Amino acid sequence: MASTHWPLLIPPDDGHPWPFQMVMERTPDFPEELKNPSSGQTVGRILKDSPYRVVIYGSGGWSHGFLTEKNDFLWPDRETDMVRLRQVDEGREEEWETMTLAEVEDSGQQELLNWVCVAGAMNELNQKAEVLDYLETYIFNSGKCLAVYRP
């Protein structure tokens, strides 16, 4: 099952949104080089001098219990989620550049790949995240982080 997230490009002339596909995080044959910050950085470079108003977002839980084999598929990888939360909160998302797909899969954090691309774009645009909330859990399927990169 693939999950597609569609940031919108709003052209200044007619105001009609244009969809722009950024990531399909769980598609096995999706090129790994598009699952890292450099793909987001490329988008950031394109948009830096663009006349368009743009929304770029990454959605999805971080680690998922049903994807985390090391926890017998019962609960999320809360420890790794806390590492990711500190990285976002402290503006250290560039550390995600060294993350391997194997590490992401080991932690059940496949949906974090959406965040990785967004963080790459925001890094290119010199934007820092503001973490609004984080919901940590053992009983639900995944922890949830809510953050915003304000212009």
Layout of strands and helices, then pairs:
Blueprint lengths: L3 E2 L2 E3 L7 E2 L3 E2 L12 H12 L4 E3 L22 H12 L11 H6 L5 H13 L4 E7 L8 E6 L2
Helix pairs in contact: 1-4
Protein described:
The protein is built from four helices and seven strands. Helix 1 (37-48) runs parallel beside helix 4 (112-124). Helices cover 28% and strands 17% of the residues. The strands form three sheets. Strands 3-2-5 form a three-stranded antiparallel beta sheet, with no helix packed on it. The N and C termini lie far apart (33 Å). The protein has one domain (4-149): LigB-like (Protocatechuate 4,5-dioxygenase, Chain B, 3-Layer(aba) Sandwich), CATH 3.40.830. Residues 1-12 and 21-28 have low confidence and may be disordered. The chain has 151 residues and is an alpha+beta fold.
**CATH structural fold name:** Protocatechuate 4,5-dioxygenase, Chain B
Give the helix level as a range of percent: 25-40%
Task: Enumerate the strands of the largest sheet in spatial order, edge to edge or round the barrel.
Answer: 3-2-5
Could you say which structural class the secondary elements and strand pairing correspond to? alpha+beta
The H/E string reads EEEEHEHHHEE
The whole-angstrom Rg is: 16 Å
CATH class: Alpha Beta
What does the largest sheet look like? 3 strands, antiparallel
Question: What is the number of independent domains?
Answer: 1
Q: What are the segments in which pLDDT stays under 50 over at least 5 consecutive residues? A: 1-12, 21-28
**Morphology call:** elongated
Number of strands: 7
